[in-house]
Write a structure and sequence with these properties.
alpha/beta; TIM Barrel; Oligo-1,6-glucosidase, domain 2; five-stranded antiparallel beta sheet; 20 strands; globular; binds 1-O-alpha-D-glucopyranosyl-D-fructose; binds calcium ion
Length: 558
C-alpha cells in the first residue's frame, strides 16, 4: 500500500437512508434537519463520513433514485438551506458528507427527458436511448431490473426509450459528450459547495454495448440480461470524469459496481488508474441467491466456506493495488444480523457483534448502514400491504400474479428474507411512539421490536452492540495494522468458523468468529500463547479451545 494513507483509507462510513432516519416536521418522512439533530450521536460512535442516499427532487418512483432535478433538494427532505446547515454542522464536527450520484438514468420528469421526448430532432433527444424497435417489438430483449421489458413505447414520437430500472427511470446516453459535460458540471457544482465525494449508483452500467444487442436469455424469462456491466467505454468515461472533475478535489469516491471481479476492481479502483477510490462489489451478497433462476428471491443461507473465499479473494486480490469497501448491508438488502447472523433474541446481540468484528478487522473502508450499530433486524412483514418497495411489489406481481411461478406464501417468505424494505424501516431511536422516528404515521411501518432495540437503550448499556462498534472503530483509528496489514485466511474449509490473520511490520492479529449457534471445540491454543493479548471479544474470558455461540475475539499474537 502506498506510503501515505489517504484519509478515506482510515475512515469509517455511516450510510444514512434519509427517508427513514429522523422526521422533524411531523410528516412521517425523515428529513435533513433530522440528520443535523443526530450528528453528535454519529460523532460519538466514531464514524468519519456520512453517505447520504439521494436527497434530490424526485417523484419517488424508486425512492429518490429517479431524479428530476440534481440541484434541488426534494421537498420531502427540506431545503437547500437545510442541506447547507447540515454540511456545515458536519464539517464543524470533523465529519465529511458524500452524496449519492445517480447518473446512469434520470427521472422521466427531469427537464432533459421532457425535452428529449418532445420530438426526434431536439438537442436533448440523444441524451437518452430512443429506437423505433421492430414494429410492436421492443428494440432488444433486455429486461428491466424492476420487471418487464427495458423499453417503453412513447406515443409522442412513436419510438421506444430505454429504462433498465423502472419505466420512470430512462437511461442516460453516455455516448453523448454533451450529456457527459452536463453531468460533470452538476458534479462540480456539488463539490464547490464543499461535499466530500460521491457514491456512484450502478456506475459500471453507463457504457452500453454498441448497437444494444440482445442479451443471453435468463432462466424462466423471455428476456435477456439488461445489466450491461463493464461496457466497452466505461473506463474511458470514468477517466474523463476523474480528469474533468474528481482529480480537482480532495474527495472520496466509491462506485456501485454489480457483477465485478477483483480483476475488474483493479481497473475501477486501481491506485494508478485515475478512476475511483473503491467499488462496492456484491459477490458476497449473491451466495444465498436462488439456485433455480429466481435471483435474489430466495430463503437460502450463505455457506460460510464460500463467503470466506469471496472475502479472502477480494482482500488478497486488491492488496497493495486497490482498495476494498467493506459492508454487510445497505438500503437495498436485508439487515446483516438477520441475513448473516441470528436475530433470535438469544443470539442477536452476540451475532451482531461477531459480524462487526469479522468485517471491521478486514482491510478496506467499512460502511455501517443506519441501525446496524444497534443490531436492528429485518422487518419480518407478513402482509404484502406492508411493503412499499417497487422492486418487491413488482416481483410479487411478476412471480405470483402474472406467471404463477411461486405461491403467495412462498413469495411472502422470500420477500421477508430479501426485500429492500427490510433495511428501510425507520431508525429506532427510543421507546417513544414510532421509536422516536416521527410523531406522525411513518411512511413505512416501524419494526415493533423497537421497544427492545433502540439507540437510547444501547447508549445506556455498556455491553450494547453500539459500544462494540465504537470500540472497533477506535481500533481502526488507533492501529495502522488494521489499515495497512495483509490478510491470511486460515482454516479455509471450516464451515463454521471464520479465522484470519492480519500482519503488519512483524505484528500479527488473529481474528476468530464462530458463525453458528453451537459451542465448538477448535485447537486454538496453538495460537493463544501466554503472551497473546485479547484486544476485543463479545464474551468475557475465552475458554480453552472452545468457541461459544457466535463467539468472536481478536488477539494480538506478537
Ligand atoms: O441499485 C442497483 C441495483 O442493481 C439494485 O436494484 C439491486 O440490484 C437490487 O436492489 C438488489 O435487490 C442502485 C440503488 O442502490 C437502488 O436503490 C436503485 O433502486 C437502483 O440502483 C436504481 O437506481
Ligand atoms: Ca419530515
Amino acid at each position: 500500500m502506498a506510503a501515505t494513507i489517504k484519509w478515506w483509507q482510515q475512515a469509517v462510513v455511516y450510510q444514512v437512508y434519509l427517508r427513514s432516519f429522523q422526521d422533524t416536521n411531523h410528516d412521517g418522512i425523515g428529513d435533513l434537519k433530522g440528520i443535523t439533530a443526530h450528528l453528535d450521536y454519529l460523532k460519538q460512535l466514531g464514524i468519519d463520513v456520512i453517505w447520504l442516499n439521494p436527497i434530490y427532487r424526485s417523484p419517488n418512483d424508486d425512492n429518490g433514485y429517479d431524479i428530476s432535478d440534481y440541484q434541488q433538494i426534494a421537498a420531502d427532505f427540506g431545503t437547500m438551506a437545510d442541506f447547507d446547515e447540515l454540511l456545515q454542522a458536519a464539517h464543524d464536527r470533523g465529519l465529511k458528507i458524500i452524496m449519492d450520484l445517480v447518473v446512469n438514468h434520470t427521472s422521466d420528469e427531469h427537464p432533459w427527458f421532457k425535452r428529449s421526448r418532445q420530438d426526434r430532432t431536439n438537442q436533448y433527444r440523444d441524451f437518452y436511448f430512443w429506437s423505433s424497435g421492430n414494429g410492436k417489438k421492443a428494440p432488444n430483449n433486455w429486461d428491466a431490473a424492476f420487471g418487464g421489458s427495458a423499453w417503453q413505447y412513447d406515443e409522442q414520437t412513436q419510438q421506444y426509450y430505454l429504462h433498465t430500472f423502472s419505466t420512470k427511470q430512462p437511461d442516460l446516453n453516455w455516448e453523448n459528450p454533451t450529456l457527459r459535460e452536463s453531468v460533470y458540471t452538476m458534479m462540480t457544482w456539488w463539490l464547490n459547495k464543499g461535499v466530500d465525494g460521491f457514491r456512484m449508483d450502478v456506475i459500471n452500467q453507463i457504457s452500453k454495448l454498441p448497437g444494444l444487442p440482445d442479451g443471453p436469455l435468463k432462466p424462466h424469462s423471455q428476456f435477456g440480461d439488461a445489466r450491461v456491466t463493464n461496457g466497452p467505454r466505461v473506463h474511458e468515461f470514468l477517466q474523463e470524469m476523474n480528469q474533468e472533475v474528481l482529480s480537482q478535489f480532495d474527495i472520496m469516491t466509491v462506485g456501485e459496481t454489480h457483477g465485478v471481479t477483483p480483476a475488474d476492481a483493479l481497473k475501477y479502483a486501481g491506485a494508478d488508474q485515475h478512476e475511483l477510490d473503491m467499488v462496492f462489489e456484491f459477490q458476497h451478497l449473491r451466495l444465498d441467491n436462488s439456485q433455480h433462476g429466481l435471483g435474489k428471491w430466495s430463503t437460502r443461507k450463505t455457506p460460510l466456506v464460500a463467503l470466506k473465499k469471496v472475502i479472502s479473494d477480494w482482500q488478497v486480490g486488491l492488496e497493495g493495488r486497490a482498495w476494498n469497501s467493506l459492508f454487510w448491508n445497505n438500503h437495498d438488502t436485508p439487515r446483516a444480523v438477520s441475513r448473516f447472523g441470528d436475530d433470535r433474541p438469544a443470539y442477536r446481540v452476540r451475532s451482531a457483534k461477531m459480524l462487526a468484528t469479522c468485517l471491521h478487522l478486514l482491510q478496506g473502508t467499512p460502511y455501517i448502514y443506519q441501525g446496524e450499530e444497534l443490531g436492528m433486524t429485518d422487518a419480518h412483514f407478513t402482509e404484502l400491504a406492508s411493503y412499499r418497495d417497487i422492486e418487491s411489489l413488482n416481483a410479487y406481481r411478476d412471480l405470483v400474479t402474472e406467471r404463477q411461478l411461486l405461491s403467495p406464501a412462498d413469495m411472502m417468505a422470500r420477500l421477508a428474507a430479501r426485500s429492500r424494505d427490510n433495511s428501510r424501516t425507520p431508525m429506532q431511536w427510543d421507546t417513544e411512539v414510532n421509536a422516536g422516528f416521527s410523531d406522525a404515521a411513518p411512511w413505512l411501518t416501524v419494526n415493533p421490536n423497537y421497544r427492545q432495540i433502540n439507540a437510547a437503550a444501547a447508549l445506556a448499556d455498556p455491553d450494547s452492540v453500539w459500544y462494540y462498534y465504537q470500540h472497533l472503530i477506535q481500533l481502526r483509528h488507533q492501529y495502522p495494522l488494521v489499515t495497512l496489514g495483509s490478510l491470511e485466511l486460515l482454516w479455509a474449509d471450516d464451515p463454521q468458523v471464520f479465522l484470519y490473520a492480519r500482519q503488519w511490520e512483524g505484528r500479527t492479529w488473529l481474528v476468530c468468529c464462530n458463525f453458528t449457534a453451537e459451542t465448538l471445540s477448535r485447537p486454538l491454543d496453538q495460537y493463544l500463547t501466554p503472551t497473546a493479548k485479547c484486544l476485543i471479544s463479545n464474551y468475557g474470558e475465552q475458554q480453552p479451545n472452545k468457541l461459544r455461540p457466535y463467539e468472536d475475539w481478536v488477539y494480538q499474537l506478537a
